[in-house]
Amino acid sequence: MAPPRILVVGAGFAGVECVRRLERRLAPGEAQITLVTPFSYQLYLPLLPQVASGVLTPQSVAVSLRRSRRHRTRIVPGGAIGVDTQAKVCVIRKITDEIVNEPYDYLVLAAGSVTRTFDIPGLLDNARGMKTLAEAAYVRDHVIAQLDLADASHDEAERASRLQFVVVGGGYAGTETAACLQRLTTNAVKHYPRLDPRLIKWHLIDIAPKLMPELGDKLGQAALEVLRKRNIEVSLGVSIAEAGPEEVTFTDGRVLPCRTLIWTAGVAASPLVATLGAETVRGRLAVTPQLQLPGADGVFSLGDAAAVPDLAKGDGAVCPPTAQHAMRQGRVLADNLIASVRHEPLKDYVHKDLGLVVDLGGRDAVSKPLGIELRGLPAQAVARGYHWSALRTNVAKTRVMTNWMLNAVAGDDFVRTGFQSRKPATLRDFEYTDVYLTPEQIKEHTAATVIKH
Predict the structure, then answer these.
(1) What residue ranges of the chain have pLDDT lower than 70?
(2) Hey, which end of the chain has fewer CB within 10 Å, N or C?
(3) Is the separation of the CB atoms in 303 and 14 below 8 Å?
């Protein structure tokens, strides 16, 4: 009898943690493990703002999945674009654009999330995101390019517009992005004698009434004070009404000449979720505490794609889409998969949130580990210590620590690589949200597939 086929979709914190635990705890030949991912690395997403600001190199936050020879998982380079839970088939578009059917006995949906957008005129064509490694690298190049172009321009209006930067989203990603990139431009402009540093203006806006409300009033206010001390203009209760290539219109009526709009206003579950036709909670798959998808035999889900009940909080709460939950869900799901293969009972996912960390660059940070409020250097130590310990390999830890030390000693560098310098890239170009199939198209692709048990 052939061993059961376990198909894992997504190589984020949840998917990789699940796969590695399966490899360690399943005996050789006990199951076939396949991982579907367009990139053969695990991205440490919380450190992307430091990649965008040049503190870390892209390679330090991308942990290779092929580096170790002892791992036996088959990696399929591509993305899942549909699932037929009745036929037990996942439709995959390979990076060659070939569409194939991948049968499974157990399916793990760890497809993660994409940048949440709204129907705002010009947003998809003119905004940049901070959700992928390519986006972070592109944003860095773009921001430095604005300094170069402003320096080369003789038009005062153009120069002023190129030195205005807008970040939308007052959560962790947006706040850290604005803080880290503001430090980059402040340090870089010292090397542009023709540019007036006072022309460089960063704006952080969010529709919410408070900055990072999860931190509490005191730490949220502390972060706000740090940003304003750096001359970052923070506007709360405000969003974008229209995004043009050379100006941005705010919902309060202001029109700002601007060539850089960075959109970090939250995330939404991967569009793959919609192809299943299953019950969702705010767009995320509604799963049981054992991480199973009700009504779909052998299907599990976790991470940003799933609304996992937060049993530690109770009252119908679901786990927030954070790395610490995703990693721990991955371990529990792996154990439940093994239990399913061995016909043993499954266990619930329960985890009490360990707290939050926000790195604002330099010596500035706010953290709330285990409910203890910290700011400044102690918070910075906790934030970087947490991120460093969460990196999966010693190679990644060494690279990140080396980058931090080098940046602390030598300061920032302002190299512009010219990445896509002649082709502006926006939200449309990085996250491929338009490649997913409809339920009818999925049925067409899977109709000829015969599942053999």
Answers:
(1) 68-70, 419-424, 428, 448-453
(2) N
(3) yes
Nearest alpha-carbon partner for 307 in 109, 118, 42, 132: 109
Which segments within 135-278 are labelled E, that is strand? 164-168, 201-206, 232-236, 240-243, 247-250, 255-257, 260-263, 267-269
The tokens for 73 are 């998982």
> What would the pLDDT profile of 321-365 be if each residue is shown by its tens digit?
999 999 999 999 999 999 999 999 999 999 988 888 999 988 899
Q: Which of 414, 430, 428 is nearest to 135 (CA)?
A: 430
According to DSSP, residue 446 is labeled: H
Cβ atoms of 406 and 66 within 8 Å: the answer is no
**pLDDT tens column, 94-105:** 999 999 999 999
Q: What Cα–Cα distance (Å) separates residue 283 from each residue in 5, 146, 328?
A: 28, 37, 21
Token pair 């299943």 in the structure block, residue: 276
How far is the C-alpha of 291 from the C-alpha of 295, rounded, in Å?
13
Q: How far is CA 130 from CA 54, 126, 155, in A?
A: 14, 14, 30
Tokens of 395: 């190679």
pLDDT at 354: 83
Q: How far apart are CA 191 and CA 183, in angstroms?
A: 14
pLDDT digits (tens, 9 = 90+) for 155-175: 999 999 999 999 999 999 999
Find, among 25, 88, 73, 79, the residue nearest to 299 by Cα. Answer: 88
pLDDT at 448: 63
Q: How many residues does the chain have?
A: 453
Backbone φ and ψ of 4, nearest 5°: -65, 150
Torsion of CA 224, 230, 235, 239, to 10 degrees: -110
Coil, strand, or helix at residue 155? coil
Helix (H) or strand (E) holding 239: none
List helix spans (H) across 296-391.
323-341, 377-390
